[in-house]
Structure formats: C-alpha cells, structure tokens
Amino acid sequence: MKQQKRSLTEALQAVAIRQPVAVAAPVSRGAAPKANPEAETEQKPPSIVYARAGKRLIGGHFDKSVSRQLREIAAREDSTVQALLAEAMNMLFAARQLPQIAEP
C-alpha cells in the first residue's frame, strides 16, 4: 500500500521536537534494480566520452534566429555547427595575431 504523505505542519513539528521523520522510499519508474550492483562499475562509459576527452565546452546565449541561421549554413555547406564555430574562432584568432588552433 502507498504510504500517506505527512503534512508540512506535522513535518515541521517533528523537526522542532527532534523526532525522526519517516521518509517513504523513492519510487523507481525505470527498470527493475540490477541483481549485481558491481556490474555497473565494470561497464564502459559511452564512446562519446572518449571523443571529447581533453576538450572543453565553449558556449554562449544567442537569439533563436542566430542558432537557426548557423544551422542553415551548416546544412547548406554540408558541414556541422561545430566545424563552423571552429572556423569562426580561427578567424578571430587570426585577427588578433594568435595561432589558429581551433579544430572541429
């Protein structure tokens, strides 16, 4: 049976007089728990982690139209947004007389 939740007043009163408050166990909405918890630690992380090893995310908040236009250019040129951003960063580095080191 489902345990009834306590009211906020009851919970605060229990804390005020230092009585332990019974907490319902969290409900799992996913798959059933695994029988062997050690098996989780043996699994390899997704390959995307290796592709991004040693890299940092650089981002900014722009208007929706900027994002759309950048994606349209990438599609038109059969490229990626990341490749276009690397090109733009290298253009900025060149304008500042810095090495062009950005790679997609």
Nutshell version of this structure?
The protein is mainly alpha-helical and 104 residues long. It contains 5 helices and no strands.
Question: What would you say this structure looks like, in words?
Answer:
With 104 residues, the chain is mainly alpha-helical. The protein has a domain at 63-104. The protein has five helices and no strands. The relative contact order is 0.06. The model has no long low-confidence stretch (mean pLDDT 81).
List keywords for this structure.
single chain; 45% helix; 104 residues
What is the 3D shape?
elongated
Radius of gyration: 26 Å
Order of secondary-structure elements: HHHHH
Characterize the quaternary organization of these chains: single chain
Share of residues in strands: under 5%
Helix content: 40-55%
Number of helices: 5
Class derived from helix and strand content: mainly alpha
Largest sheet descriptor: none
Measure the end-to-end span: 54 Å
Total count of strands = 0
Low-confidence stretches: none
Overall residue-averaged pLDDT value: 81
